[in-house]
Specification:
This protein is an alpha+beta fold. Among the domains are: 5-64; 113-240, Dipeptide-binding Protein, domain 1 (Alpha-Beta Complex); 341-553, Roll (Dipeptide-binding Protein, domain 3). The chain contains 17 helices and 23 strands. The chain has a seven-stranded mixed β-sheet, sandwiched between helices. A six-stranded mixed β-sheet has the order 16-20-15-19-17-18. Strands 5-6-8-7 form a four-stranded antiparallel β-sheet, covered by helices on one side. Helix 8 runs parallel beside helix 9, helix 10 runs antiparallel to helix 12 and helix 16 runs antiparallel to helix 17 (527-543). The longest helix is centred in the last third of the chain and has 17 residues, at 527-543. The chain is globular, with a radius of gyration of 24 Å.
Length: 582
């Protein structure tokens, strides 16, 4: 069978992306197998060099992997693998401590790690990521297939699926959800708007949906875990002045997931109840009765609460507290690098930081090695705007590292040669490492005659401040995680001008040349062309000193070994598979 050269190029590109962040070629080809028919897939895999894992299927046998036509049976509810002995306990409430509030539960406008974890609890998607390395699983979709050029996708829905009010999940709900996401063009929409419009999704019958894309897009299944399906009827009942329920969905839900909201106390705790007869089912070993997302701003408070048994999992430990708890018996932790970017967002449109030479002075005044030391070595320095994404990372960037002479040189080239101005540094309340980074910068900026005013804010207030140029801080500390394993995940949402005001784009950077490069990189299937485009994009960003890119930190999460939990290296964690051992 003739294989389209664009498909070969795109498949090779995706294979490179996934191998770069720990997904084996075997698992990648398994995932790809769900997107096409047997003969076409075999030809495509063969054209791409096959599968070089010793125990992996060959191109001929790859068609026997779950494909569009053989994936008809929905898998059982995923199971978390216990790391310790013990028997399953009765359903209990898990207490998860975090320093970050849930600022916006709307599945089509909110998007950060605490929001995503909650959205994944109360809503379902057609597909989802699960496990480490992350693999795609069917949820609402029992099977799906694409046409030859991956421009038309057809999904069969699980007829068992029901919303929390007992009404069935139908194709109409999927169509409405896709359209609402595109119309809002917020949150996770940046992954979809290049390939979908409001008319892309069509209900063929009550349990069949087609999605016709604006252009062929083979990795489409990889972004579908971010299309949360809402109960159209419930949302429309809460519409005010044409907002499609946006005001109501900030702190209410209209989903079909494993949990419902029990209480919502902003700044204190968010409690969720398990749906005992959750349509998708629970792990055979057990389930939670519910969970509480408890706000604990201080790392020391989380450490003491873990050790005393007051909480079961902590998401916000400092590196020192992480080491102190993780070394104790009875706890589990994550001990591997993540795929994230920590940067200081510099307001490019207002005040002294609108001057590129001031931004360069700040970048050279940052003591990057001191940050890694403060993290007890549980981080690596970024080599530019991207984490480790293989050949997408430009190895020839003129990186900023601590150099006070260069900092002074660039300040002298600015409109403020002697300093004499103040900058606001905003960070998340209780997040000790962000405060430490601010203090490191404060010390060196003072040598340049620049005063740094430290301001701790809760995350929702930071998100709100970032929306407008006039209110966006001079410097804002931000972690950006992984929604989709591609440079687009990091560069589009942070630097394309259409995203200005989103928390990841708090710099409000605007550059038509960069916009065009990012748009072209999204649309071409040629891997080498994408590499060249993204290399150029990184050069522009570094030359403009848009932000101060510092480190990729390991997740400092710790939990009791009585709580069985499966980590997935994608932003936002699935709570459903958790359960307690007695």
């Amino acid at each position: 069978m003739q294989v389209d050269e664009k498909q070969i190029a795109l498949t090779r590109s995706l294979m490179a992306h996934f191998e770069a962040h720990g997904v084996s070629r075997r698992n990648f080809l398994k995932l790809l197998a769900t997107a096409g028919g047997g003969a076409a897939l075999s030809s495509l895999i063969a054209a791409c060099g096959g599968d070089d894992d010793d125990d992996a299927p060959t191109a001929t046998s790859a068609a026997a992997a779950p494909t569009a036509t053989t994936a008809g049976s929905t898998p059982a509810a995923p199971e978390a693998t216990p790391t310790t002995g013990g028997t399953t306990a009765e359903p209990m409430i898990a207490i998860i401590a975090s320093g970050q509030d849930i600022s916006n539960l709307d599945p089509h406008t909110g998007h950060d790690y605490s929001i995503a974890s909650t959205q994944k609890s109360v809503y379902d998607t057609l597909l989802r990521y699960y496990g480490n390395p992350a693999e795609i699983q069917n949820v609402l979709a029992t099977e799906y297939e694409a046409n030859e050029d991956a421009s038309v996708w057809t999904f069969k829905l699980d007829e068992r699926a029901v919303f929390h009010d007992g009404t069935p999940v139908t194709a109409s709900d999927v169509v409405y959800s896709a359209g609402r996401l595109i119309r809002k063009n917020l949150g996770a929409a940046w992954m979809f708007v290049a390939v979908m419009d409001e008319t892309s999704a069509v209900a063929v019958d009550e349990h069949t949906v087609t999605m016709t894309l604006k252009s062929p897009f083979s990795p489409f299944p990889l972004i579908l875990p971010w299309l949360f399906i809402v109960n159209e009827k419930v949302v429309r009942e809460h519409e005010v002045d044409g907002d499609e329920g946006e005001g109501w969905l900030l702190d209410h839900e209209a989903g079909s997931g494993g949990f419902t909201i029990k209480s919502w106390q902003v700044g204190d705790s968010y409690e969720f109840e398990a749906v005992p007869d959750y349509w998708f089912g629970w792990p055979e070993q057990g389930r939670l009765a519910g969970y509480v997302w408890k706000i604990m701003r201080e790392s020391s408070s989380q450490r003491l609460a873990l050790l005393s048994g007051e909480i079961h999992m902590a998401h916000g430990l400092s590196s020192d507290d992480f080491v102190a708890v993780a070394s104790e018996p009875g706890f589990e932790s994550i001990n591997e690098p993540g795929l994230s970017v920590f940067a200081l967002k510099l307001n490019n449109q207002r005040g002294p930081t609108s001057d590129v030479n001031v931004r360069k002075a700040i970048a050279y005044a940052m003591d990057y090695d001191a940050v890694i030391t403060a993290l007890n070595g549980r981080a690596s320095l970024l080599e530019g705007p991207l984490p480790n994404l293989g050949d997408f990372v430009n190895p020839n960037l003129n990186l900023y590292r601590l150099d006070m002479d260069k900092a002074k040189e660039h300040l002298e080239m600015s409109e403020y040669p002697d300093g004499g101005f103040e900058l606001e540094f905003v960070y998340v309340t209780g997040l000790q490492i962000e405060e430490q980074i601010g203090l490191i910068l404060l010390d060196n900026l003072s040598k340049l005659g620049i005063t740094l005013n430290m301001q701790a804010l809760v995350w929702p207030d930071m998100v709100a401040r970032a929306k407008e140029v006039e209110t966006a801080p001079d410097i804002m500390a931000v972690y950006s995680g992984t929604s989709y394993a591609d440079p687009d995940n990091f560069l589009w949402q942070a630097y394309h001008s259409s995203q200005a005001g989103f928390w990841a784009a708090a710099s409000h950077y605007k550059n038509p040349e960069l916009d065009k490069i990012l748009e072209d990189a999204r649309s071409t299937p040629d891997h080498q062309k994408r590499v060249e485009l993204y290399h150029k994009a990184q050069e522009i960003l570094v030359e403009d000193a848009v932000e101060v890119w510092i480190q990729n930190q390991w997740n400092n999460w710790v939990w009791t070994d009585k709580l069985v939990y499966q980590y997935t290296p994608i932003m936002g964690q699935y709570i459903q598979p958790m359960y307690f051992l007695s």
